[in-house]
Amino acid sequence: MKISVIIAFYKNFPFLDLILAGLQRQGYADFEVIIAEDDHVAATLDYIKKRSAEYPFALKHVNQEEDLGFRKNEILNKAIARSSGDFLVFLDGDCIPHKHLLKEYAALAREGIAFYGRRVMVSESLTNRLISTGNLRLLSLFYHVKYGSRRLEDGIYLPFFRKKRLGGSGAVIGEYYANISWK
User: Fold this and answer.
1) What number of CA atoms fall less than 13 Å from residue 172's CA on the CB side?
2) Which of 14, 97, 159, 180 is 20 to 30 Å apart from 130, CA to CA?
3) DSSP assignment, residue 168?
């Protein structure tokens, strides 16, 4: 199954570097990445041209008119139209995916089922260290505790224990992975 990962992006290249590094270490390989830019900046096109050869996945880009206010959902719809995957995964521009995210989605994906994830709230000091080093090993439990990150319980990966419940529409919603987010 091919997955389309859509990243909501707005002018933060250091965060985009970390997100793409997180996608590069995925245990699942059949996916494309679409950067959905809520703006139209030449620097983003330059970034994609220079960096796309570094990644083992296809890197696409959609954008819209220059900064006309918050129109995230509009650009996400354009990214969906451009996608070629069988399954969509959305990442905000401040979330690094867990290395098993796509593998878990692919294993559990079924028609009519939606998933959502939780995230660790990475402390400002750890965020700064991540940006300055690019070292995703800093996302370990040890460093989260050391630097005072919050919601650590949402970042623990337990593949043998998946909480499931039925939503109002009958969709199974699982909490089995964590995006890492910083504020």
Assistant:
1) 11
2) 159
3) T
Whether residue 176 is predicted with pLDDT greater than 60 in this model: the reply is: no
Instruction: Determine the length of the chain.
Output: 183
| Residues of the chain above pLDDT 70, percent | 86
- Pull the structure tokens for residue 145: 């505790």
What are the backbone dihedrals phi and psi of residue 40, each rounded to the nearest 5 degrees, phi first?
Answer: -145, 90
Burial of 20 (0-12, 13-18, 19+ CB in 10 A): buried
pLDDT tens-digit map of 137-150: 999 889 989 999 88
For residue 181, the surrounding DSSP H or E stretch is strand 178-182
d(CA 63, CA 40): 6
Residues 6+ apart with CB under 8 A from 124: 182, 183
Confirm if 50 and 75 have CB atoms less than 8 A apart.
no
pLDDT for res 67: 66
Question: In 38-125, where do the E strands start and end?
Answer: 58-63, 87-91, 95-97, 118-122
- 143: CB partners within 8 A, 6+ apart: 126, 149
C-alpha–C-alpha distance, residues 150 and 93, integer Å: 19
